[in-house]
């Protein structure tokens, strides 16, 4: 993938000013997504995944502080846009819903209840494209059909409450894709849906990615969903990325103790006898961020005196697969649980 | 084989809807003609999608939902209660023996009470302890069993994380020494790393205190790992029930199969193999005739549209059809599938 990435976050650090002081929600996060690629962002509640996603569209609240060397680059096909430097309302509008679209978790809350679904779709198309009202309506109906909604012309005139949960999420996807965004952010898009409906929606999203060739940031806490949709994975904990890599490598040979713990804690259907082993302890409050490695308070292999003081840097384990852990810095291939000959020369960066 | 603690016989909960002035009133059949028996000491899982009636069944068994018809009994060897017709005194006694753990640990605990008061409240309301010291002792005992830090008992719920709060809810449910616990989506709101911890705690408590659990969940992999026996519900009906291993090894009902294959696999190379169900669960106000599942079933035939299948045993031991351990399925054509 030599082309310019659609979105690139550099040293992204996001803090919130609150009554209790400055809270760090995201710290020094780097990632990029190319066209046609799905990056899965996994993490538990409070890990900062939604804050990261919202920052790409400048949707965070007014008390948000971005560190001066934080950069978000959005490539619109011709220019690199410095997203965090945009100050004017109409520049924001160009990004929100135009270059970047977002699908939220709760489809009922994402539609205005008193405006028909059709009118909402037409409104955003007229805002972001040169289509007239008639063309926008036709395109919207076409998109509704494309996402598998039966009787689309009829549904176009209905309100969100007349749709079922799965249908609302389909309509949301149709709406998000109708402006042909460069980047689609899907924030837990199937969490509120039943499994049988989730399977339908995930399949639909995969088909559409291929067809529209856009970049997708897929946020979820469900590693199964990630395994089924993403090309690359980034694991986040307390605002830091701990491990990134191709989905197969990360799920089959997780390198970071946190990723390993998450996978062990997950109930698996193919081995019902396996003990569920929880990650010990609880997620620390954002007000009490641990020093050193953010995970050391819950890590079983933490080394006293080192992990609680030294901030680990990313170590390359395989090509494109990196994790931030001191154990890996000390022994580049010790903790990956697979043959060392796969590890490239000079794996320590 | 153990005796069943809970037995129901065509238990139904129908809620009336506002209808026309004359003529039959329309009803929502939240659960319809459920036959289920929960063995004493078992961890009984109840799965289904939203709107399948699993919560209503759990509540009906706690006498917290109005039963329209059918019977339900509770028998722990000491006392027997008819859960449909119970007078006030009996209900008070029954409440000590049956408790509920809720889904959302953030909503279930009063923010104005200390953890000690939250756990002690059932004891005081039910008059189970006489003195404050006795109460405190009982609270400390159960809190320790639920792996709560005893020094934290004086704090308020806001100081705790989701997993800790769920352990407080569990302690409150267990403080009156119940036999039967309904856990309604009790781990659904928790993160994966915490979820495993709470599941392990529930399992070990059930053995230690010989509790019987009705574990309601939409997550099949969680149920597969914790329960001994599973019942699958769809639109207010039981479609399949079997010992866990049997259900996951050889699911018989097409709905159970579809549910199992819809779970996103952790294997990235296993993409797109899921047997996709088309459509969505129909509205319970207007359920389809015949087999409730026929509108989405890939194998539906004419008979399925007309005749509702009954839950019948799959094995040869049809004489024990009602014993808890059998694999039963409600499908006309399960043999051919």
Give keywords.
heterodimer, A: 349 residues, alpha/beta, Rossmann fold, 2 domains, eight-stranded mixed sheet, five-stranded antiparallel sheet, 12 helices, 31% helix, 22% strand, B: 337 residues, four-stranded antiparallel sheet, 10 helices, 12 strands, globular
Which percent band covers the strand fraction of chain A? 15-25%
Counted beta strands of chain A: 13
CATH homologous superfamily caption of the largest domain in chain A? P-loop containing nucleotide triphosphate hydrolases
> What's the Cα radius of gyration of chain A?
21 Å
Oligomer: heterodimer
What form of chain B results from the Cα inertia axes?
globular
Q: Which CATH C-level class of the largest domain in chain A is it?
A: Alpha Beta
Number of helices of chain A: 12
Q: Counting H and I runs of at least 4 residues, what is the number of helices of chain B? A: 10
Largest sheet of chain B: 8 strands, mixed
Looking at the structure, what is the overall shape of chain A? globular
Backbone structural class of chain A = alpha/beta
Averaged pLDDT of chain B, please?
Answer: 89
Largest interface, chains and sizes? A-B, 44 and 47 residues
| CA-based gyration radius of chain B | 21 Å
Number of strands of chain B: 12
């Amino acid at each position: 993938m030599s082309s310019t990435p659609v979105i690139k976050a550099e040293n992204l650090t996001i803090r919130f000013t609150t009554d209790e002081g400055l809270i760090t929600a995201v710290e020094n996060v780097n990632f990029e997504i190319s066209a046609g690629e799905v990056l899965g962002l996994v993490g538990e509640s409070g890990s900062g995944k939604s804050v990261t996603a919202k920052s790409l569209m400048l949707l965070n609240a007014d008390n948000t502080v971005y560190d001066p060397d934080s950069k978000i680059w959005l490539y619109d096909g011709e220019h690199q846009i410095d997203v965090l430097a945009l100050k004017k309302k109409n520049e924001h509008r160009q990004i929100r819903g135009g270059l970047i679209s977002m699908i939220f978790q709760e489809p009922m809350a994402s539609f205005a209840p008193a405006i028909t679904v059709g009118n909402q779709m037409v409104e955003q198309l007229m805002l972001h494209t040169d289509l007239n009202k008639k063309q926008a309506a036709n395109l919207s109906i076409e998109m509704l059909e494309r996402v598998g909604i039966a009787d689309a012309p009829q549904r176009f005139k209905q309100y969100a409450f007349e749709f079922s949960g799965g249908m609302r999420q389909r309509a949301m996807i149709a709406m998000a894709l109708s402006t042909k965004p460069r980047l689609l952010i899907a924030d837990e898009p199937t969490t509120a849906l039943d499994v049988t409906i989730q399977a339908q929606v995930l399949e639909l999203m995969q088909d559409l990615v291929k067809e529209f060739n856009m970049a997708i940031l897929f946020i979820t806490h469900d590693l199964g969903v990630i395994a089924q949709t993403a090309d690359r994975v980034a694991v986040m904990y307390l605002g830091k990325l701990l491990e990134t890599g191709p989905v197969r490598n990360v799920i089959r040979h997780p390198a970071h103790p946190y990723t390993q713990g998450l996978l062990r804690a997950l109930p698996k259907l193919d081995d019902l006898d396996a003990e569920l082993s929880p990650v010990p302890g609880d997620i620390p409050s954002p007000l009490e961020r641990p020093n050193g490695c953010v995970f050391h308070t819950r890590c079983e292999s933490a080394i006293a005196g080192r992990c609680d003081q030294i901030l680990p840097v990313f170590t390359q384990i395989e090509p494109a697969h990196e994790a931030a852990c001191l154990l890996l810095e000390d022994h580049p291939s010790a903790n990956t649980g697979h043959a060392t000959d796969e590890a490239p020369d000079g794996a320590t960066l | 084989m153990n005796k069943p603690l809970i037995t129901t016989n065509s238990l139904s909960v129908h809620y009336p809807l506002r209808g026309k002035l004359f003529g039959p009133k329309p009803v929502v059949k939240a659960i319809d003609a459920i036959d289920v028996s929960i063995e004493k000491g078992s961890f009984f899982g109840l799965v289904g999608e939203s709107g399948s009636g699993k919560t209503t069944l759990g509540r009906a068994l706690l006498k917290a939902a109005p039963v329209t018809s059918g019977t339900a009994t509770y028998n722990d060897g000491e006392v027997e209660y008819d859960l449909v017709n119970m007078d006030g005194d009996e209900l008070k006694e029954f409440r000590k023996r049956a408790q509920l753990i809720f889904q959302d640990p953030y909503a279930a605990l009063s923010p104005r009470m200390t953890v000690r008061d939250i756990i002690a409240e059932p004891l005081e309301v039910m008059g189970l302890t006489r003195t404050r010291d006795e109460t405190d002792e009982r609270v400390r005992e159960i809190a320790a069993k639920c792996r709560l830090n005893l020094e934290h008992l004086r704090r308020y719920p806001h100081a705790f994380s989701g997993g800790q709060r769920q352990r407080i809810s569990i302690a409150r449910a267990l403080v009156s020494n119940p036999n039967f616990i309904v856990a309604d989506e009790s781990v659904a709101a928790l993160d994966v790393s915490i979820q495993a911890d709470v599941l392990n705690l529930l399992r070990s408590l059930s053995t230690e205190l010989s509790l019987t659990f009705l574990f309601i969940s939409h997550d099949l992999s969680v149920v597969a790992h914790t329960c001994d026996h599973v019942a699958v519900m769809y639109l207010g009906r039981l479609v399949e029930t079997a010992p866990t291993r049997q259900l996951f090894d050889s699911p018989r009902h097409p709905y159970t199969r579809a549910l199992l294959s819809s779970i996103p696999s952790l294997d990235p190379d296993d993409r797109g193999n899921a047997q996709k169900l088309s459509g969505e669960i129909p509205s319970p106000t207007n359920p389809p005739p015949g087999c409730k599942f026929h509108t989405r079933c890939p194998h539906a035939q004419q008979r399925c549209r007309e005749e509702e299948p009954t839950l019948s045993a799959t094995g040869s031991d049809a004489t024990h059809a009602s014993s808890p351990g059998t694999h039963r399925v409600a499908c006309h054509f399960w043999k051919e599938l």
